[in-house]
Amino acid sequence: MKVLVTGGTGFTGKALVRRLLDEGHDVVALDYKEGLKTDEIRTWGAKVVIGSVTDRDIVEQAMEGVEVVHHLAAAFRELNVDNSFYDEVNVGGTRNVVDAAWMHKVRKFVYCSTCGVHGNIDHPPAGEDAPIQPADYYQRTKYEAEPIVAEYHAKGLETVILRPAAIYGPGDPERFQMIFRRVAKGSFPMFGNGKTFYHPLYIDNLVDAFMACMAPGVGSGGVYLIADEHYYPISAIVEKVAAALNVPSKIQYYPVWPLVVAGHICEKICKPFRVTPPIFPRRVDWYRQNRAFKIDSAKRDLGYAPKVDLDEGLRRTAEWYLKEGYISLDPSLSQKNS
Ligand SMILES: NC(=O)c1ccc[n+]([C@@H]2O[C@H](COP(=O)([O-])OP(=O)(O)OC[C@H]3O[C@@H](n4cnc5c(N)ncnc54)[C@H](OP(=O)(O)O)[C@@H]3O)[C@@H](O)[C@H]2O)c1
């Protein structure tokens, strides 16, 4: 099949492109910028179209002869941009891509939303019918694109909406890397009581879900939370990261509220200068917002079955961070546990 992956050089996109190529599909990746990652996926055999999902001509070019679209491109990690940037890419860009898919008679359109549309989970674990209460502008725009996709489903396009939990694994450029880095230093600063629930999603498990969505009829018109089998208190995640690195897990507890205030102040001060703040509200939310989900609908309709558990996923991730030099271990720490 010819498959288009928007955001195909991102953390998730790259893993999906790799799997699609391994399974014999023709892959077109649409991505914003040229770089090492675009070169890498070209060497794997993917065609790369450079440009924005907001540019109709570029999207048309990428859509030529495509049967299945996985729409992952999103403004996500950008700080210091106006909210209108998130509107343009996440809402306008999605309309652009889904409309082009409809015009080109694409067979299946899969939209990658986020579990973040549910914000803090008041009654964990949450299903897809839990209240929609996005906690920030990114999450809000990810949700605003969902009814647009549903609109095209109503016209006759086969669509599936996935709401992934917190994705991690080899290649993760951000969130888990910070946890690993702090744990590797020998002591993890925990703001709050560490009991907040966190639901990880190993990258290969998510790729399994995308692949399952490609079959005709599967999940059509549905919205699915995708996560690993289990969720954990964040203190347990830290302990498991320490185990994956074979270092002692030492957690130091601090009150969370000063950090919340500092996050808001830092963001406000840094924004006019377009400087990335050292702490900002979305990062602080990690300590505060419950994320725990039910994956029964995905199991039932998509045949989703997360194969890689947290211990194995963290072991593979630790191996990758160490190999790539993202973290280094103090030998005196690793000896203590051995
Ligand atoms: N990571 C998570 O925990 C998580 C959880 C739930 C849902 N999601 C969703 O999963 C998807 C993938 O996330 P990720 O973590 O893999 O993010 P990522 O690494 O930031 O990947 C996003 C990709 O989209 C590209 N992109 C951004 N704006 C674009 C535009 N206007 N036109 C074309 N390409 C554009 C980026 O290109 P550049 O790098 O060149 O800017 C990047 O390659 C996103 O839709 C995100 O909302 C992520």
How would you describe this structure to a colleague?
By secondary structure, this protein is an alpha/beta fold. It has a domain of 221 residues: NAD(P)-binding Rossmann-like Domain (Rossmann fold, 3-Layer(aba) Sandwich). The strands form 4 sheets. A 7-stranded parallel β-sheet has the order 3-2-1-4-5-6-11, sandwiched between helices. Helix 6 crosses helix 8, helix 8 crosses helix 12 and helix 9 packs antiparallel against helix 10. The N and C termini lie far apart (49 Å). NADP nicotinamide-adenine-dinucleotide phosphate binds next to helix 1, strand 2, helix 4 and strand 7. NADP nicotinamide-adenine-dinucleotide phosphate (NAP) binds next to helix 1, strand 2, helix 4 and strand 7.
Write the layout of secondary structure elements.
Elements: E1 2-6, H1 11-22, E2 26-31, H2 36-44, E3 47-50, H3 56-63, E4 68-71, H4 83-103, E5 108-112, H5 137-155, E6 158-164, E7 166-168, H6 175-184, E8 188-191, E9 197-198, E10 200-202, H7 203-213, E11 222-226, E12 232-233, H8 234-245, E13 251-254, H9 257-270, H10 281-288, H11 296-302, H12 310-324, H13 331-337
Parallel strand pairs: 1-2, 1-4, 2-3, 4-5, 5-6, 6-11, 7-10, 8-13
Antiparallel strand pairs: 9-12
NADP nicotinamide-adenine-dinucleotide phosphate (NAP) is lined by residues 6-7, 9-13, 30-33, 52-54, 72-77, 89, 93, 112, 114, 142, 164, 166-167.
